[in-house]
Amino acid sequence: MPSTKTLVISITAMVVLILGLAYWFIADLDSSLKEEKGITETSAEESDEEIDPARYIDDGENSTLDNGVPTETHFMDTLHGMTHQKVVADKKWTLVEMTDERISNMLATLAKIKGKNEYENYDFYYDTLLQWSNGNFRNSVEVHNRIWRMQGGTIGRAERLMTTEEEKEFVAENF
Q1: By the 8 A CB rule, do 94 and 52 touch?
Q2: What are the residue boundaries of the structural domains of the chain, listed by start?
Q3: At CA 53, angle to CA 79 and CA 97, rounded to 5?
């Protein structure tokens, strides 16, 4: 019969070996899942690269122009930035406060170009803003994700609408 010392050493060695194998298996499984989902270390953590300033919209002052019509890209970016006030998403690079005045100004812009085929997604913008002007923001997740897809989004997909409390906190922190 083996001595107590030999038994303790053997059991300890087996426990360490089992824990090591379990750690290796879990770590390997985690990296496999990340690869399957297309997540890289730089997308999961903050990247050291600077974010392109063109991705940011001003405070909204130029979202509509008195003497002209913004480009569709600018209009889309503004609309996208407005959705961030209503949705929960991992990353939000564009922030534009959603106000009744801004919604009205954007609808006025669309009225200027109605029937002129200026914007490829005119109907989408109009339907969205019309609902918002009536106080219906339930479509914000779908609007956000549609624009996000049109812009080739890979990080920051909207998951759900914010609660009233979350939105109040977001507005207080950002505007």
Answers
A1: no
A2: 4-44, 53-174
A3: 30
